[in-house]
Every structure is written in C-alpha cells, then in structure tokens.
Specification:
88 residues; alpha+beta; HU Protein, Chain A; three-stranded antiparallel β-sheet; two-stranded antiparallel ribbon; 3 helices; 5 strands; 28% strand
C-alpha cells in the first residue's frame, strides 16, 4: 500500500473526501516528524512507538586505503511495534 491508497482508505473509512483525508494523513506525518526532530517519542497504544535514536560518531576505516576517519553523529527514526501488532 502506498500513500495514495492509504488516503483513499482513510477517506472511505471516515466517510470524508480524499482531500480532507490527505490533509489528515499529511498532518499526522508532519507532527510525528516534528516530534522526532525534537528528540521526543510518539507512542500509539495498540500500534507501536516511534523513537528518535541518537547514534554517536565513531571511528571507522576506509576499506580501500585503510585510512582511519570519524563518522558523523546522527539521529535516525526507529519504530517498535506493540505486542498486539507483533502477534498479527
């Protein structure tokens, strides 16, 4: 399922237009993205949890030259499904 199909199903389920459902889906995704950028987590009981995971910089080696260098620290999004979702 892609985003367009998701919007169509939300519109059908909520008995609304696809434009309104698209605004709802985009709004939800914007809020989740904003919270993760702030370092917060988003917990949806019965579905799962979105977590902003910080990865510190580390020393690595270039396989071609053998030269040591440092990777950049970064924050990435992680999703942990709830127990109910795992059982499906």
């Amino acid at each position: 399922m892609n985003k367009k199909e998701l919007v169509a199903k939300v519109a059908d389920h909520c008995d609304t237009t696809q434009a309104a459902a698209g605004d709802m889906v985009n709004g939800m995704l914007d809020i989740i993205t904003g919270e993760l950028k702030s370092g917060n987590e988003v917990n949806l009981p019965g579905f799962g949890k979105f977590i902003a995971k910080h990865r510190p910089s580390r020393e690595m080696r270039n396989p071609q030259t053998g030269q040591k260098m440092m990777s950049k620290a970064k924050t990435s999004a992680q999703f942990k499904p709830s127990v109910g979702l795992k059982d499906l």
